[in-house]
Amino acid sequence: MSNSNEIIEDYWPFLCVSSTPPSSKSRSYCTLFYPAVLFFVYLIGMQIVNTPDSDANCTLRITPDDERVMREFTGHLHSENRSVKAFLAIGGAGKNAEKAMSAMACEQINRRVFIRSAIEVARNYDFDGVDLDWEFPSDKIGGMNHLAYLFTELREAVVEEARQTGKSRLEISAAVYFNPDLELESSEGRRYPTEEIVNNVDFVNVLCYDYAGFWDTSRTGSLSAIYHENSPYCTSFGIRKWKEAGLPPKKMVMGLPLFGRTWKLIRDEDNNGGIGATAVGTGPEDSAQDKGCMLYRNVVTFNLDH
What we know:
It comes from Papaver nudicaule. It is a single chain. This protein is an alpha/beta fold. It has helices spanning about 20-30, 65-80, 95-105, 110-125, 145-165, 195-200, 235-245, 295-305, and strands at about 10-15, 40, 45-50, 60, 85-90, 130-135, 170-175, 205, 250-255, 260, 265, 280, 295. The strands form 4 sheets. The protein has a 7-stranded parallel sheet. Strands 3-4 form a two-stranded antiparallel sheet. The two termini are about 35 Å apart.
């Protein structure tokens, strides 16, 4: 049984609109899950726009497709179950998202314009909160400090907006690396601003996956290992580090992947194909852009066919 403290989430990519329209997703989750669920929509089609005009800097660009899908998504979701919440997720893991978020967060005026735009879009399309998905801020440009400012200023803005309008405050969430210290990701030794996260963010989506993949094709690995005796790349290690950094467990949501990583194995009678098996490259993939990666539904189909 679920209880009121549990959060069940799903990131719904904009690119899935043709295969899984908002109406089908919202109906299935409203009938399956409990009222405490928070349902996310991730709008890949939405971009941060930087222009010479300071009034337009770092605003969210809404295309006609964005507008149609957002209205359909929140409309279906709230009509089925008003207690299920829709969040507007902004950012992503790609280089373009990192560049846009960095350019926005590095200047106070840019952050102010972005925050105003995010709140406006969230309200106009009936979202219940905003999710900041700036996953790997670089300390080369003071990224973690800028992220701290962004959390603080966003919280102040949504509190003030709620006071002025009399509406319920927009909630804030954030997607973060599985470990608060990004030393495993790079040599920069970056650490998330845990104090600002605790003080300003309602809950955190910890990315407890991608511990193995195309970046190391010498051996197979576990994409989302819960425990690992000889490696820090596992969920138990990351969650423990977040707790030690001061993030309360009640604010953590453990992220799980709905995709798989693939490897091409060496043909050897001693190679049993399990975790740690010798490999020589990536295996089947959904597309050239998704190197060694397959969505869950395609993993199922592949296994049935082979």
